[in-house]
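Open question from group meeting: does this chain pack into something compact, or does most of it stay loose? Before anyone orders reagents, we agreed to write out a predicted structure and look at it together. Recording both the input and the output here so the notebook holds the full record.
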Amino acid sequence: MEPVKVGLLGLGTVGGGTVNVLTRNAAEITRRAGRGIEITHAAARDLKKARICKTGNIKLTTDPQQVVDDPEVQIIVELIGGETLAKEMVMRAIAKGKHVVTANKALIANYGNEIFAAAQARGVMVAFEAAVAGGIPIIKAVREGLAGNNIEWLAGIINGTGNFILTEMRDKGSNFADVLVEAQRLGYAEADPTFDVEGIDAAHKLSILAAIAFGIPLQFKKVYTEGITKITREDVNYAEQLGYRIKHLGIAKRTPNGIEMRVHPTLIPERRLIANVDGVMNAVLVKGDAVGPTMYYGAGAGAEATASAVVADIIDVVRMLTADPENRVPHLAFQADALSNVPILPMEEVITCYYLKMQAADKPGVLADITRILGERNISIEAMIQKEPAESFSNEERTATIIMLTHKVIEGSMNQAIREIEALDAIKGPVTRIRMEHLSR
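Structure tokens returned:
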């Protein structure tokens, strides 16, 4: 049987890694797929650029449309990133009846509903395992391995840059700005790190995971997103003293009132496995009603780690080339006509626990005022630390740092309480608020 011919759009880090994995493991891949798989065509911006892979047997071009339009190519692998050109090429490939593999989380998060509808109408597959958590097969695990479960919630460290920064802040006592510079020097963070440190990258991935877990359309714009730029080394240290660690989590939960989708810094108990995922590694914790909590850990980026997922998708497509489209695994796990429009909860309706930090004048009655405000909002305190008072910059008034952990409360009530606390004359500056999850059930 003739090998399946693959066209590659993008020959950067992941593209080069994909060529290397397919070449090095060709015999094993053929045994798994039942047919040989060859990358015969590729598009790259600069054909003279040095590559991490050999390209002697690949027809190279600077025009991705030539690859998509070539009649020999059966599968298009989109690794160019971005949205405009990537979407154009993916939709063109689908219109020509070609299957697509992509690692582009922004593309799937923003346009997946449209892309999948087009693919279903044309009877082709769009595979996107590499779009979430690099080499960790989390899409397949949730979509297929846990198909017999009602997924109750999932929580993931799904951005290695943010996890590296928080790990270094904890281990070295460094501040955010210094660790970010180090992350950029090491190549873990881009020159413009906004997508990583502000949580946008994680929100793209979370919207994909939530859609697969709960059978809802992709809704990236409804993900609450908060970055880590305001986390201080003092917050990291106080969390440690209280038995917690701060991680930048993507969290999706099924509740009686709707679906939660949120990305933000989160305190989690240090004894949890996911609290001990450090550096640039990723991990996703998934709770199913039948199986209970399961955790998936590994490299979330890198040439061959991501290529591992891309190649696995190519193999899946090759296995299904002759299958009836009606018998394929649905793109978003649930049959396309069975996706539900469950409401996405606004952040003010989310219920969780909180870490609060505030600077207060060291005088009688201040703590009583704070606890009164919390009590009026039915917010109970789990733990509290009051640090030794220090002289203020004006040397007129001594201030103390108060740290509180609360039990569960609706976010809207906490927002109101924080506004009232900040309005107290004795409170100096804004109240720091970090959400807290126990991830135990």
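Observations to bring back to the group:
Residues 105-122 form the longest helix (18 residues).
The chain has 14 helices and 18 strands.
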